[in-house]
Amino acid sequence: MSTMNSVSIDIPEEELTEINNAIATLKTKLSPYLIAITPSERQAVPKMSDGTIPFVEKAMDYAREDAQFLPPYTDLDEVHKDWNAVKHLVPMLRDIQQLESNLNDTVMVAGSEAYLGALSYYNSVKYASKLNVADAKIIYEDLKQRFQKSRTSGEAEG
Fold it and tell me: Which of 13, 63, 133, 144 lies in disulfide reach of 128, CB 3.0 to 4.6 Å?
């Protein structure tokens, strides 16, 4: 089995500490301004997309210039606060989404390579166990549990 080593990373402890501190700072600084919604709320809320942005900007301009059509239940100052939140948070969201995507890909490939390395070792131990090589059987017996199917509820244990 040939393995390709696409990821070879050894992040120094000092850098890991700085990265974790930066993440903690982001969480601390942003959390007072962020909310969480349920999946059903997420599904029900009208969503603004790239195509909706010009409409929102234009409607807010009109509402500022010609407020006679502004419904009394619409607080234009709050609409502007929401709009400003979107303008400031969207660039952060995009940067974090790119970072999350690259982080996810890196973890997936590194995990795959580690798993393939472990499988390679396992297969070698399995073969050595069949040849009765000292110490191989106990390692094989321990590792093979990962691949054993769970017992059905009707089977007796023993």
Answer: 133
Pick from 153, 150, 123: nearest CA to 139: 123
- Distance CA(141)–CA(143), nearest Å, equals 6
Domain around 106: 45-147
pLDDT at 19 over 80: yes
DSSP state of 128: H
| DSSP E strand boundaries for the chain | none
155: DSSP letter:
S
Give domain status of residue 15, yes or no: no
pLDDT in tens, 24-45: 999 999 999 999 999 999 999 9
Exposed / middle / buried, residue 125 (Cβ in 10 Å: 0-12, 13-18, 19+): buried
